[in-house]
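pipeline/complex-builder :: batch 7 item 3
reading input block
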Amino acid sequence: MPIIHVEDLTFRYDGMDAISDITFAVEKGIYMGIVGPNGSGKSTLIKNILGILQPEQGRVELFGKSIAHFRQWEKIGYLPQRLSALNAHFPGTVEEIVQMGLPKRDSVMLRRTLEMMAIAHLASRLIGELSYGEQQRAMLARALMRRPELLIFDEPTTALDPETREIFYSLTQEMSRMDGTTVILITHDIGVIGQYAQNLLYLDKKVIFLGTFKDFCSSRDMTGLFGPTSQHIICHQHDQIRSNG
Amino acid sequence: MDLFEIFNYGFVQRAMMAGILIASVSALLGMFLVLRRFSLIGDGLAHATFGSVAVVLLIGISPLYVTLAALPLVIISSLAIYKLTSSRKINADAAIGIVSSVGIAAGIILASLSGGFNVDLFSYLFGNILTVNNTELLLSFIVFVMVLAVVIYFYDDLFAVTFDQELAQSMGVKTRRINVILFLLTAVAAVLAMKVAGIMLVSALLILPALTALQLSVSFKTTMMVAVGFSILAVVCGIIFAFVLNLPAGATIVLFNICFLLMVFAAKKLSILRR
C-alpha cells in the first residue's frame, strides 16, 4: 500500500490549470524531492494532497484511505512554504507552537526535539519575537515532534544557516532510512536534493519527470529540457556534494 | 453616599453581573478576532444589530425582549460575513463593510418608515448597562457558559486556526466548523455588548482588552486571562464611575479600557527605555 497515491489530479485557480493530470505514488520509507520552477504547482500539489485545497478532478489517497475519509492526521508532519500570515503579535511561545495539536504533552520529547533544532534556549520565547530562521527551526521542530510516518516539507531550508540546513537534511535522511519515515521535500535545489532523495518528481503544472536522480542525469528528455550544460552542472554539483560528504 | 451602598441597588447588581459576564465573553472572543485580523467584525455586527433592532421595534416586540429578538438577524449577518470572506474574492474588511452598510441603511430606512425619529431605536446606539433586565442577565450567563465551554473544549483547534489556518487544516482541524462557531458566538456577543456599550462602541469591548493584554504577552493562555482581567476591571470601574459621577456607563467603560491600554503602552515604553 503506497503512503501517498495521487491519480489524475487537476486543480484550477480561477479557471486556469495550476496542475493537471498528476499521477504518482510514494511508497513507505521513500525520500522524494519535488522540484520545478516558480509557479509550477509544487505547493498547490502538496495542498491538494493534504486536503487544504479541493481538486477539480482526480483522487488522493493517504495511507490507503481517500482524503475525504482520512482521519489519522497525527501520522503527518507538514511544514508550509511560509506561514501564510504569521502575526508578529501572536502570543504563542515556541513551546506552545511545537506542541500544537499533540494529544499528550511529552516534556522529554519536547526538550530533545528543541535541542536537535538548537532552539532549546528559546522554548519560552514568543514566536513573533524570533528571527525568520529561528521561526523556521521552531516550525521544523513542530513537524518532527510528532514523529510522523510522513513528513512533507515545502522549501524548508530557505531561511536556515548552512549548519542547520545540513542537520536538517541529515536528520530527515536518517528518519527515512532508520525509521522508514516517508519524506516529501519541495525545493529549488535539485543538486542538493539528489544527495538525499531516492526519487525525484519534476513538476511544471504536469509531471515532467518521475524517477531516480541517476535516471534524471541520464535522461535525454531532461537534457532536452535543461540543455546539456545545465544538466551536467546539476549532476556534477550533486557528485561533488557526495564526494565532499 | 458610601461607595459600597451602590451595590445595594438591584439594577446595579444586575449591571455588574451582566457587565462582568459580557466583558469576559468579549475579551475571550476578541483575542481570536484581533489575532486573525477580524477586529472590525464587532463594528460590522453592531451595525447589523442596529438594523435588526429597527426590524424588531417596527414589528412591535416588547423592549424587554429586543436583545433576544434581534439575535437571529445578527447571526445571519455574521454568517454572511463568513461566507463572503471565505469566497477568497472579497477581503475580510470589505465583507464586514458590506454587511455593516446594509445594517445601517436598513436601520435608518425602517426608523423613517416607523414614523420619523424613533427614540427607542436611537437609545440602542449608546446603550445603558444600568437598564439590563433579568432576561438579558440570563442570556448573558448562558452565552458566558457557552463561550467558556467552546474555548476550553476547542482550545487546541482555536489556537491552531488562529496561528495558521492552512497548518491547522493539515493537522485535521475542521477549520470551517471552528470559524462558524467563532462567528456565531461573536454575533451573540455583539448583541449583548450593545447593551453594555451601545452599538457605537461594541467593537471597543472586543478589541481593547485583547490589545492591552497582547502588550504584556508571555504565553497564549496567560494573554487570554489577562485580557479577561482588564475587561472585567474596566466594566467594574466604568459602572461605579458612571453611577457616582452620573456619566453614560458605556462610554465610561470604553474610556477605562483605553486608559488601561495607554497605561500598559507607557509602562512598556518605560521598561524598554530603562533597559
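note: The two ends of chain B are 46 Å apart (CA to CA).
queue -> next item
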